Amino acid sequence: MMWRHLRTSLGAFLLSWIIAFGVHAGEFDPSQFTLEDLMSIELLSASKKLEALADSASAVYIITADDIRRAGVSSLADALRLAPGVQVSSIDGNKWAVSIRGFNAFSSNKLLVMIDGRSVYDGLLSGVFWDVQDTMLADVDRIEVVRGPGASLWGANAVNGVINIITRSAFDTTGELVDARIGTDHNWDVSARYGVAFNDDHAARLWVKKRESNESHQEFSSVLQEVPGDTSPYDSSKNSSGGFRYDGVVTPDYDLMVEGQIYEGMSDGLYRTPQYTDPYISAVKGNTAVRGGHMLQRHQWGGDRQWQFQSYFDVTERDGQLVKEKRRVLDGELQYHLPFNAVDVICGAGYRHSWDELRTTDFAGYDPAYDDQELWNIFAQGDVPLIEDRLRLTLGCKFEHNSYTGWEVQPTLRLLLTPSKHLSFWSAVSRAVRTPGRIERDGDVFGAVYGPTFVYSGMPSYHPPIYVMAEGNSDFDSEELWAYELGMRWDIRDGLFFDLTLFYNDYDDVLGPDPNITIVSTDPTNPMAPLISYVPLGNNQEMQIYGLETLVRWSPCAQWSFEGWYSYLEQDRDVKQGHGFDYESYNPRHQWLIKSLWSPLPGWNFDSWIRYTAALDTLDIDSYYSLNVRISWQVSERFEVSVAGLNLLDPDHPEMIPERGFTYFANEVPRSFMLQLRWGI
Hints:
This protein is mainly beta.
């Protein structure tokens, strides 16, 4: 069956190639970038200053606005599937696991995600709640994906990578736009925007969005393991959001950007609930109310010697079975870009203050319930030409002080060799840390339950029910990474490009269970009373993760472009003492993607991409192929109609189950279809 699906999908791709070669280039204006355009795109995330992709000594991939539109995706997390080396898995209809180069999980904690430079990293789980990252997709200019550490500039938690979602300037979004999608199982979203340019120096836009996703996923039955209760699909969600952006040239030497957003919604889930009587665990449906907003401002002045000051205030609230959290974040950073003769230096300092209130749930408690954390940092990075136009050295370091572990030093050294304008090689050595989250320092979290009969090492052992609680540790330290990277980029000829990255990541002090376990009876007078096993969290693991990522782009003619990538991941884990967490089970060893963008006639696009993800054997998740196809018709200059089919090769398939210690169930990703109408392009 698998090979029949593969032959069918590859046959469709080959047919599109043959047809594309037979189409003559007439009057045609494709919206996709040429390879030369892509290599000259100026990006921010790799060096915190504008530089061409071809000049970056990092593994960088750019998902353009056109890529997002033509992929037919409806969420930011789904769009990240387009990037090589990124692990993206749907857990259910509103929960995602997103990571780079390993450690994939709902609470992926070694990946820094930003929107317009504003961190959306949550200080409780040290991860990202993707269900509330719901900006208007039509206003996204690009997504910059940096694989590998970015801590020398961006700081703690930019360990395995940096994702920066950059929205369009208000000058580029004038006029009206309405974008409506309706899909199978009554999934839909509608967004609208109105932008105005007051004159050549000032522009603004307002936007609103409403999204609703119904119970379209099927339960992953092997995960439920005959847990009693109503286990029918329960992963619906809804969200309403709106925002604004202003861009202005206040004086010839001073630019200002201000933007903000508010949102409110509900995310449902199916949860495991422990109980003291047989069968000791049951499935219960629940929901999480989400609301929040932010305000961000960015000031730039000083001409060539560019000063920048950015600050934002962020409010997040979640009220559900798993998490009850209120968080306020105030962040500010001053940056100075100093081109000094041949040396290019960027430096700055920043401060962040986070306040939180955490309430006890059926699954977790916190002591203290109220806390605040401070983060100070200074950084500097310079580019030094060793051989003019041929060899460049980059040295940088960030010094951070946080409330939990004190000072952290995160340096990087990078070399870029360009023997010709079509070929470049780069290498890097970097250190990065992942600082503790509140749950690891101050939380007690329900992890598992074992009934009164438990088989250990093949011998029956009889004991009362045991409830395992992961216990926060005030001595929990930062996780540390030393990363080593090699890469090359080769513009082989017009229309053909090749990119290769090799990496080796050496982690120390990785989160794991401390062997000093405490077992307490709920009733010491009753020998059969349930027991509670408190397992402290500690830094008792080491890991080595290594692999490669390769990318090929090919444009045989103006009407057609092709892209394919492959990533390989290998993982080794060492436990210093006791038992460890099985991180490697959650990351596929092999992933690849083939994407075809074909415009057979003016105004018509036929786009398709097939993706392969290797099996997660320990989790009982088979390998799978996923084929997406989108056909669009530009009816007029301002009106586009498109139809997309997603996950076409099977009715449904599982992609991920929650990591140990989390209490919700995973559902399967279904085949679906989507009709999209966009007016005012």
